[in-house]
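Weekly structure sync, notes
Attendees: PL, DS, HV (note-taker this week)

Item 1: DUF2877 domain-containing protein
DS walked through the input record. Source organism listed as Jiangella anatolica. Sequence as pasted into the shared doc:
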Amino acid sequence: MPAPTVPSAVRAARPWPGDASRQVLPGAASTAVAAVVGGPRLTGEVVAATRTLTAVLVDHGAEPVLLCLTGPAAVRLPCAVVTPWPVSGLRPGQHAVVGDGEVQVGDGVLVTVGRWWQARPAAIGDVTLARQRTAGKDDRTGLDGAIVAAAGRLGLALLCGDDDELADAAGGLLGLGPGLTPAGDDVLAGALVVASAVDPRAAARLASAVEAAEPLRRTTAVSAGLLPYAARGLAVPQLIVYLAVLGAARGDVDAAERRLLAVGHTSGAALRLGAQVALAALAGAAR
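Item 1 (cont.): predicted structure, written out as tokens:
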């Protein structure tokens, strides 16, 4: 799916009337959310609020779209609107309005988008080389045995091309593990990103299997909202860089891998595991 067209202009920052203590911040938004942020105003709801991230699900067509307000030090999610510092004082359940170049949350936060950053899908130059470099490596760093076993079933389902097995494997991973993005979901995201770069048909089948498992009912809203971006090949930059280096004749694979593994408590390891099982299963079908 091509990236949405970035609006040529958005509303400039303006003072918030009334209480001067209310937060008015500039923001730089991902092009992956340009159609939502730059389009007509839509309603949404805060589904997670941490020290570094505020996640909003926006009502947009048949399925809600995830958008995240993050500070500059946070992991750069593909749906991030980055502000100079993290917004504070927000809580799940608060009302949001997104559109016309703005993100308004409750009565206390207004982010005006004046800049955009490019969210680029994963690309793997030499898929065979990437597969060779990951073959036989220890891909279980910090991960529970149940996650590793479920990832193995996903790899077999991708290799066999059986839709029923793929549905079972996706359902077995969805929501598996603790945290804002359970490790099972991260495995699915890593596999989706690789499949989108290597075998679009397999990517579409896996995305359909994940969607049929109803992620919003099975896992956290943040994790469920990130999976559609992964189906488009979009992910944190550490995974995008790791995959690019894996398939390139030059580049420090070990350094890229260390940066990926440093993402979250288990997210980086689970993303890598999903990427590796998809590479092992789909490299022969590389376009």
